Protein: DoxX family protein
Organism: Igneacidithiobacillus copahuensis
Amino acid sequence: MASCSMLMHRMDQIYDRLVQSAQHLSSLAALGARLWVAQIFWNAGVVKWQSMSSTITLFRYMYHVPLLPPVWAAYLGTGIELAFPVLLALGMAGRFAAAFLFIYNILTIISYPQMGWTGVLFQVPWGIFLLYLTIYGPGVLSVDAVINKVWKTSR
């Protein structure tokens, strides 16, 4: 009976190690997803910022953002694509940043119907990663996790 108990104890230890390893791997995966998606949005924002006159023209004639004048939409879209990727990459307000970019991604698809299915298919993985990060958070390798840890220890 003692050997059965020892075997069960050993299996529990192995299981605990596997769970810890999976948590570390999921944190690395979340970091990778955050950095990959952040880079895509950041690059788009930089391109828009480098030529705001072209960006305004695109918003005036190609992108049909509902409820906003084209100039406002151009500056707002550029600002979003420069600010929110930084939050996402750092994991600062990580769920909020991911949820915001998830919705922004959908609005991009709606506002630019000329994108076609090929363009939409490029954005599906971003949407999946952003949805994952919205639901599960940015992981332990994030500013949010550090703030949470400090908050818990100070209480």
About this structure: Residues 39 and 65 are 23 Å apart (CA to CA).
